[in-house]
Design a protein that fits this description.
The chain has 494 residues and is α+β, with helices and mostly antiparallel strands. 33% of the residues lie in helices and 24% in strands.
Length: 494
């Protein structure tokens, strides 16, 4: 539809609205629907007309007119609420005298109405409502896209999500599905005796992850603040305070680029448990994902972008070091050593910076050559201490930490540590991060003195995990773009 045609239709609808105002307020709020369309379908959709006549089921529904076919003294219309659609059969003689011609026939697609009527089946077997009364509740001024073309332009879908949700049932299902996943996650942790908590979204010092923060300013206190990049350091403070198991379904903000898998504002679940290890959390994470698949998806077999993932099977577990050797069969262990790692990376086209240590070089090799090949669910463990400033060193090999990341389909879905709880070691590592920050690393973490002070009070041995909910929803709904699972994704200004 051209902009000129749309403006003409809007003008016509505004004229109709002006006529409606002569009889009172056309935006009423005195209709209470008793039934949802999907519940009616579930309860009565399998009955034949004879059975429906015996039931004599009167219904009271409300929703948006999505289709309207006027045929003289009778009309068919399609009504849509948040659960689905149902056909309306509207006749002149069933309504008050003059209402059919003077009111109903003038209503438009997109108008919101309230309906009272009787359930019946048409000759073609479609569950319908024989309308006894119908009332205009909201006049729609802007025409909807044509039914058979719908809303397909991606840019418009993201900018006008409200129209997308009206027109595209698949979109509605994705976000209903997302809500069910979040509800399952919340219930899972409550049942495992974790306490749900809330921590600050505005922080004096950003920490808990390697990321560039958004900066803001508090006028009354005349101080700079940061939108949080992670809730980790505050959740650990709660562990220090004696809350032995906590979780937060949280919004994080990272001032980074946009991609198919990245949005500057995103949702995670982070959970921490005293006296738990990263080994415990590999098992728990498997149980969580397996439960979501079976309970919400109704199958442990997940199909995504041409791949099948069987969540009923044990996830593979590999160290960073071993995964590099597995997916780079020409490399030998000596090629990843202190003397040879730099030249090995440069042969792969990786530009090694002078301030990188061996751990950072190994991680760059891993990210460039291994990550995308981790298709089936795989826990990658034992990350170098150099790139894990908040993780506990491994007792047998202090070069690495007790840490894992979970990869599925070549993307990271979870990050976990046995948490570092030695305050002196923590200070030393954050000082190294601060040094890197002074050298220009915008993602390095600053020193949070209050967090170190909390650790000095004594933090019990603890494990923690962060799982990206947006990516998880992408996987379980088959969506390739993160914008398709976020109701209002971040977009460039028009």
């Amino acid at each position: 539809m051209s902009e000129q045609d749309e403006n003409k239709l809007i003008a016509e609808r505004k004229s109709k609205l002006a006529d409606l105002r002569k009889d009172g307020n056309p935006f009423v709020n005195d209709f209470k629907p008793d039934d949802s369309i999907q519940e009616l379908r579930d309860s009565f959709g399998s009955l034949n007309q004879e059975s429906l006549e015996k039931k004599n089921k009167e219904v009271c529904v409300a929703g948006r007119l999505m289709l309207k076919r006027v045929m003289g003294k009778a009309s068919f219309a399609q009504l849509q609420d948040s659960s689905g659609q149902i056909q309306l059969f509207v006749t002149r003689d069933e309504l008050d005298e003059g209402f059919y011609n003077e009111h109903f026939k003038k209503w438009d697609i997109g108008d919101i109405v309230g309906v009272n009527g009787l359930l019946f089946k048409t000759k073609t077997g479609e569950l319908s409502v024989r309308v006894k009364s119908i009332k205009l509740l909201t006049k729609s001024l802007r025409p909807l896209p044509e039914k058979f073309h719908g809303l397909s332009d991606k840019e418009t879908i993201y900018r006008q999500r409200y129209v997308d949700l009206i027109m595209n049932e698949d979109s509605r299902k994705v976000f209903q599905f997302r809500s069910q996943i979040v509800a399952y996650i919340r219930n899972f942790f409550i049942q495992h005796n974790y306490l749900e908590v809330e921590t600050p979204m505005m922080q004096v010092i950003p920490g808990g992850a390697a990321a560039k923060p958004f900066v803001t300013h508090h006028n009354a206190l005349d101080m700079g603040l940061y939108l949080r990049i992670a809730p980790e350091l505050y959740l650990k403070r709660l562990i220090v305070g004696g809350m032995d198991g906590v979780f937060e379904i949280n919004r994080n903000f990272r001032n980074e680029g946009l991609s198919t898998r990245h949005n500057p504002e995103f949702t995670m679940i982070e959970f921490y448990k005293a006296y738990a290890t990263y080994d415990d959390f590999m098992d728990l994470t498997e149980d969580l994902l397996r439960g979501i698949a079976n309970d919400i998806c109704k199958s442990s077999l997940i199909h995504y972008q041409g791949e099948d993932f069987d969540f009923s099977k044990d996830f593979e577990r590999l160290s960073v070091f071993d995964s590099i050797l597995k997916y780079n069969p020409k490399l030998k262990p000596v090629d990843l050593s202190q003397d040879n790692a730099k030249s090995s990376a440069e042969k792969m086209g990786i530009n090694v910076k002078d301030n990188w240590g061996l751990g950072k070089i190994q991680i760059e090799i891993f990210e460039k050559t291994v990550e995308e090949q981790l298709i089936q669910p795989t826990f990658i463990t034992h990350y170098p201490t150099e790139v894990s400033p908040l993780s506990r060193r491994n007792d047998e090999d202090p070069f690495v930490t007790d840490r894992f990341e979970l990869f599925i389909g070549g993307a990271e879905f979870a990050n976990s540590f046995s948490e570092l709880n030695d305050p002196l070691d923590q200070r030393k590592r954050l000082e190294e991060q601060a040094r890197l920050k002074d050298l220009g690393d915008e993602e390095a973490q600053p020193i949070d003195e209050d967090f170190i002070q909390a650790m000095e009070c004594g933090m019990p041995p603890t494990g923690g995990v962060g799982i990206g909910i947006d990516r998880l929803v992408m996987l379980l709904t088959g969506n390739r773009w993160i914008k398709d699972v976020i109701l209002f994704p971040t977009l460039r200004s028009e």
